[in-house]
Amino acid sequence: TQLLEQSPQFLSIQEGENLTVYCNSSSVFSSLQWYRQEPGEGPVLLVTVVTGGEVKKLKRLTFQFGDARKDSSLHITAAQPGDTGLYLCAVQGGFGNEKLTFGTGTRLTIIP
Amino acid sequence: SQTIHQWPATLVQPVGSPLSLECTVEGTSNPNLYWYRQAAGRGLQLLFYSVGIGQISSEVPQNLSASRPQDRQFILSSKKLLLSDSGFYLCAWKGGRAWREQFFGPGTRLTVL
Q1: Would you call A88 and B44 a contact, using CB atoms and an 8 Å cutoff?
Q2: How does the average pLDDT of chain B come out, rounded?
Q3: pLDDT > 90: percent of chain A
Q4: Which of B10, B59, B75, B91 could form a disulfide with B23 if both were Cys (CB 3.0 to 4.6 A apart)?
């Protein structure tokens, strides 16, 4: 059983459209992170959300942490080709929170 | 500023051959270090992590091993590669003021034939 389920697994939309991807779990987390990964590169951190209900904005990207801190969403407004990539959510775990567990990922393709 | 290096960038090895992938971090001290493997286009699977020199925690049973001979050096090894060891290997570090986030290296693409 996956700790973090991301949906959809694949998403392909036209430039200029809006989209939302999700990261869901049955567990409660103290914080959650979103990363973006481009082909052949390592993931890059986009944001960390900590408080239930928290909303953070990063230009056209809006991240929300669920009230119960079990899930999160990423909304992109007016998608651009540069948004193409693999979006991964991740949560801390392990003794002393040393480890990150990653979700299954959403592969996003923006068509020019 | 901190940087993380991995080499080689790509590697093609025959089944049964040994493996050594290296990761080094600059600009920080006593980082946590991590090795991940990623199957094509999917999430990351944590293989090993280290909180200090000589301290290695293994997450999954496998054909691989890790070592940390120096504070900012992390090595992933195998004595005999299997076909199933193919994948994209990522090293990451965490520490300092950014205590929640992990910062990833550029990765090594390993193909076992």
Answers
A1: yes
A2: 91
A3: 76
A4: B91
